[in-house]
Amino acid sequence: MDDGAMAGAGGRDERDGQREGVKSAHRALAILELLAQGDRPLTFAEIGTALSLPRSSLFGLLNTLRDRGWIDLAEGERGYRLGIRTLEAGNAYQRSLDLLVIAKPHMERIRDALDETVQISVLEGRRNIYLDKVEGGQRLRLDSEVGRRLPAHATALGKVLLADLPDAAIGTLFDGIDLETFTTTTIPSLAALRQELAAIRERGFAEDREEHTVGVRCFAYPIRNHTGRTIAAMSVSFPTVRFTPERGESARSLLGEATHAISVRLGYVAPVPASVAIQ
């Protein structure tokens, strides 16, 4: 067999493996969906019959799902039911819905006070993705939309989200990556990014100094959950023609109050300062 034939055979094997992986994923999801629809645990035989799965495949799938906590064996029965991981996943989904419901009135209050665009975003790898926004009534507005992804190193929202990550995680995300440059003020290197994130951790908020779009300034504050981790961020954006230091100070004050109130609703408890704890 020549090298070309070997490569071709290897390609077929790889594609076959991918197809098997997709098939297993579909089967695992079908099991979870079946158990979610029922009002009682289902036996091995009942699951196999309902989904027309081979016994050998079903046995492996059930064991894997059980090992990972997605299903459990019901006590006193030989039936399977949903496990604790499904509850965790459901709670995580509910918290994401709760976040936007809780945040909306605060976003609208800031918008009404400043008549500027207010946004909320989460981190997705090296980018931040916009979950929601409210716009002011000004004719000149920020060009953004829900679902849009922007490089996190070039936005206030992205930087305040990155600032919650440990240095090792920042290295994993950006080591060997050429940071995309958008304006003359975009952070140009990993070393500069690390320095900026350290400053953000110190002061508690991030600022975009026309780093992604010329003519746009932005401030962002973190939203924390019950564990103290930053799960989202909220920002106010200004066209530079409407920005003044006084308006920036108002935005920071409003954002700080709003994100703290949202975080508290999500279960966050601010740490007691060391000077107070010692007394």
Describe this protein's structure.
This protein is 51% helix and 18% strand. By secondary structure, it is an alpha+beta fold. The chain folds into 2 domains: 3-82, Winged helix-like DNA-binding domain superfamily/Winged helix DNA-binding domain (Arc Repressor Mutant, subunit A, Orthogonal Bundle), CATH 1.10.10; 89-265, GAF domain (Beta-Lactamase), CATH 3.30.450. The strands form 2 sheets. A 6-stranded antiparallel β-sheet has the order 6-5-4-9-8-7. A 3-stranded antiparallel β-sheet has the order 1-3-2. Helix 1 crosses helix 3 and helix 4 (84-114) packs antiparallel against helix 8. It is elongated, with a radius of gyration of 25 Å.
Which helices and strands appear, and what pairs or packs with what?
Layout: H1 3-37, E1 42-43, H2 44-51, H3 55-67, E2 71-73, E3 79-82, H4 84-114, E4 117-124, E5 127-134, E6 149-151, H5 156-162, H6 167-174, H7 190-203, E7 206-209, E8 216-224, E9 230-239, H8 245-265, H9 274-278
Helix pairs in contact: 1-3, 4-8
